[in-house]
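Hey L., structure's done. Input below.
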Amino acid sequence: MGKTEVSVIPCLDIQGGRVVKGVHFVDLVDAGDPVQAARAYSEGGADEIAFLDITATVEGRKTTLDVLRRVADVVEVPLAVGGGIKTLDDIRKVLDCGVSSVSISSAAFRHPEMVAAAVREFGPEAVIVAIDADHSSDCPSGREVYIDGGRTATGRDAVEFAETMADLGVGRLLPTSKKTDGTRDGYDIALTRGIADATGLPVIASGGAGKLEHFHEAVVEGHARAVLAASVFHFGVFSIRQVKEYLAARGV
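Output:
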């Protein structure tokens, strides 16, 4: 039996031109300069780096392109960017900064036709749909989609929405659990696995990594093809290399 291939992705949550990190999407604290962090992660073995302008949508503005360009200039690995992306023109501007893929969240929920158009114009590999979700007994999967940076409940089942996005041809899905985000208590395995199994698409596990075994659980139990983390990398709990060595020792 061969090894399972998985990518390790540090995530830069950006607000006001700085890297920040919160818990349950709130209580944000400063975690450093994005350009310095991106360079360190690129040199430290990241397979990809995520850059999420976390308040762009709520503040009704576009992704911070000047910061993004500076980050793109210093990294040697693929860069995935999200936050405030609402139109094909927004996607074009972000990709023109040297980015390999865009992550669309609230706009994907409100304007699925834009997602379909983006896939046609830029290709599936350039389009990620990010799905923020929280526990809900009213949804068949037990997880409900939230938009606007996790502030607005939609009443829509997260797995069902993921299937709709998969049908539009997107390349990857990025589910993040509000309940586990920033807690370091582990990923929401049920959410990750539910979406991975229902869609067959590569899923990026996000929200809650705190121990090395959490990364392994996301792959083995959550069927994730990539593991994303922020605070454990920003605050030096683990290095990317430590995570990779831990996974490799366990056949991942």
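Residues 112-122 form the longest helix (11 residues). The radius of gyration is 16 Å.

-- N.
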